[in-house]
Amino acid sequence: MTTATDALDDDRWVPAGFTRDRLTTNGTTLSVLHGGRTGGPVIVLLHGWPQTGRAWRHVMGPLAQRYTVVVPDLRGAGDSDRPLEGYRKIDQADDVRGVLEALGLAGPSVVVGHDIGGMVALAWAARYPDEVAALVTLDVVLPGLGLEEAMDVARGGMWHFGFFMQPGIPEMLFDGHELEFFTATFTALSNPGTFDEADLAWHAAAYRGRDRLRGGFSQYHDLLTDGADNRAMLARGPLTMPVLAVGGAGRVAEEVGRELAPHTNRLTSRVAPTGHFVAEEAPEWLLAALDDLSAQLTTP
User: Fold this and answer.
1) How far apart (Å, rounded) are the C-alpha atoms in residues 141 and 115?
2) 3-class SS of residue 28
3) CA–CA dist 209, 196 (Å, integer)
4) What does the pLDDT look like over 227-269, one tens digit per residue?
């Protein structure tokens, strides 16, 4: 039986041809996988919470056939450092921009973000539009564009946002209950059979203990500031790159694209045949959607 500790040390999930480096960037150090087609267009895959770059394991190999693929663990997650500060999404966009510069890959990239990673991706596209060839958001309600309303528990909003924003409290309560939390959350938000016992053990190990939990929950502390940042940046004008907004089944599917529609003239909205974890529940569907998007990259 795979234990949580064994799962965290097991890197056999990484597709052939990828290299893992730890790169210092923007005052922190990130663990980054990179590989794929040398000289190909760059695609950056930004995971959500409570996950790591492992979330992309089913699509990294196929994407590597035509892209140079960059998969960081965001600050606070996986094998990346867990600093006390710097979790504003625009700060984390600067983290990843520094990674690309260190790898010699600076320039326009396709940026794909799931959940929290989608928030980072939007901040990157809004502040540095010339650096984002296309923006893809997967099952995320975005700060400043509907998230605050979705967080309003008094009007039926999602309770966990406000709870996770409280410094120190969530990690105190979840410490020692990581596997229970992952089992309940991942199975409730995904199609049956998506995550087996080894997957759940791996994720529990990646966030085991108060310090790792703190790094993860830190992603939530700046959400209101992130919303103000997004509103200010998007007020300068609409996004000019192609934008693909994907929602899984449920609340996000009802809102997919609506929040971004006023801020881009090149929006495609799609509902995936999945729950929350699009890249793991339906990797072939996602790859086909990204292929459709690539056709727009040469179309002004």
Assistant:
1) 8
2) strand
3) 22
4) 999 999 999 999 999 999 999 976 666 677 888 999 998 999 9
Buried/exposed code over 131-167 (b: 16+ C-beta within 10 A; e: otherwise): bbbbbbbbbbbbbbbbbeebbeeeeebeeebeebbee
Question: Using a CB cutoff of 8 Å and minimum separation of 24, what contacts does 200-205 make?
Answer: 201/2, 201/3, 201/4, 201/6, 201/7, 202/2, 202/4, 202/7, 202/8, 202/10, 202/54, 203/50, 203/51, 203/52, 204/4, 204/7, 204/178, 204/179, 205/4, 205/5, 205/7, 205/8, 205/178
Using DSSP, state whether 232 is helix, strand or coil: helix
Distance between CA 251 and CA 238 in Å, rounded?
25
- As a whole number of angstroms, the distance between CA 251 and CA 280 comes to 19
Token reading at 211: 């310090």
* Cα 207 to Cα 82: distance, rounded to the nearest angstrom: 11
**What does the pLDDT look like over 73-122, one tens digit per residue?**
999 999 999 999 999 999 999 999 999 999 999 999 999 999 999 999 99
**Cβ of 191: how many Cβ atoms within 10 Å?**
17
Cβ atoms of 115 and 39 closer than 8 Å:
no
Residue-wise pLDDT for 108-163, tens only, equals 999 999 999 999 999 999 999 999 999 999 999 999 998 878 777 777 767 777 77
For the chain, give every domain's residue range.
4-294
| Bridge partners of residue 35, in order along the sequence | 18, 69
Question: What is the rounded distance in angstroms from the CA atom of residue 113 to the CA atom of residue 214?
Answer: 21
CATH number for the domain whose boundaries are 4-294? 3.40.50.1820
